[in-house]
Structure prediction request, 221 residues.
Amino acid sequence: MLFVGLAFFALTASQAAAQDSNEELNPVARKFDEFGQIGGCDLGARLDNLAIQLQNEPTAVGYIICYGPESEGYGTGSSGLNIMMDYLVNSRGMDAERIKTIYGGRFKEWKEVATELWIAPHDAAPPEPLRYDTKVEPFTGKYEEFEAWDNLSEYDGGTGPSFRSVNRASFADLLHQQAETRAYIVAYNTKGSVPGLWRRAAKDVASGLQNSYKIEAARIE
Prediction:
């Protein structure tokens, strides 16, 4: 029994050494974290952890893969990458050369966003994003309902970075996919609202669709 135990240990140690050797010869990226739509302190904490780990591995590179609505406005995958990159570089003081961003396309649930954080040796191949064959189904009807006020803010109520307006981004993405449809913004004052608030709120939403998501003014009512 003693001999068998020693033989098993020797084999296991040999396998471990071979695995370590293979990793040194063929360095690979490893997934560090993944999450859905979060913001404020929660998102800041996830990015802080990535920054700390990269500081502990001074030759490693960080990768951020983000999936979400297409286009460039708030709430899209590309916007999320810019927001997270800005936080890591300007708030955490990370070297921009050590952070790489990859837009992975729409998420499997096309109205949502998702993010993966990866760490890789400097000479490893970048991680490959999953390619979801996301179908945007034809849609008509009420898409979103929300409260609004003067000086509308896109920012999260927390103290960290935020994706902002993912629903608005997916609505704009849908409009781009359905080129023959029109967007209708229905706004009304509730009890106690400031006179004229509905008009200002509707104008703000319409302006955002045009300027941030490049929806033609003629398609917005």
In short: The helical segments are 2-25, 40-56, 77-91, 166-177, 197-211. The first strand starts at residue 30 and ends at 35.
